[in-house]
Amino acid sequence: MDPSSPVEELSGKLLEVKTEIASVTRQINDIELKLGRLQYLIAGRAEWTYEEPILFDDDVKLVRQHVFLLGHEKAHLQHQKAILLEMQLRIQDERILHADRQPSTKALADVIRVPPSVQHYHRALFHPKYVRPPSSQSASSSSSRLSTQLSEFATRVRKFYDVDRSYCMVAGQIDLSDHIGEQHCVKAAHLWDYRCRKALPTFHLTEQDIDNPRNGLPLCSEIEIAFGAGRVCFLYQPATRDVVFVVLDPDIKNKTASPSGSTFGDLHGTSLKFKNANRPFKRLLAYLAANSIAFASKKKSKSKK
Description:
Blueprint: H1 6-43, H2 51-56, H3 60-101, H4 118-122, H5 147-161, E1 167-168, E2 172-173, E3 186-190, E4 216-220, H6 221-228, E5 232-237, E6 242-247, H7 264-267, H8 282-304
Antiparallel strand pairs: 1-2, 3-4, 5-6
Helix pairs in contact: 1-3
Coiled coil: 7-34
Keywords: Coiled coil, Mitochondrion
Organism: Plasmodiophora brassicae
């Protein structure tokens, strides 16, 4: 499912450059041999072979002209070689730079590649002004708000994504006939925590965007809880405009993502099932993914000690 990484692409390009440099070097060596032979012929330190008088018409002026052309060709090839060497060094520098930018979550075996846009927000990850308050098992950050506000938000979210009350963006259409209660429903989850709305201008949004439908996703109640606790995240793929669901906590992979019949492990790595071209705020998806991944990485490091 993952496309080839930039490092792999650069490695392939570097191999092509090295092959071309080797070819150029062989051409230069061949030219130098020809030059040496011609200089010996001109100086009279070598005898013409049977083919050479035919090749050069036994004319010294023609030989000198040919020497000049070969010298010009050699200079051109040497210049080309210098350009290729410079390209090789630049590619190596880019490869090193890309390797330095790889997220610390590379050790998490099943995590999909984080888009480059995450790097922009990664700097602010641990700034206390922006980090979401811990929500443990309570993902409903808006619980203290009026139910009418939440109901209006849910209606806007479903209309924005063109789905009904039983549609989860991760699991798809859910049969709710056998499910009763808050723990067994599809909710319009806020991506950005209501309590942190004052930080939204950091992402070129306003505090009022907290109830923008692009700040929401219809999710199974158990997925909403896991998202609020940083145990799952959503990764936006710019090339395809897909949003991929990623489980960061291996402890919940065998847990059922109620009210769907699928486990978190079944849903891990799948693309969200959008019915139209509308998408959530990509800048928030990027930041929240980086935040959750950094938290999961720290948690894993502590568990190894």
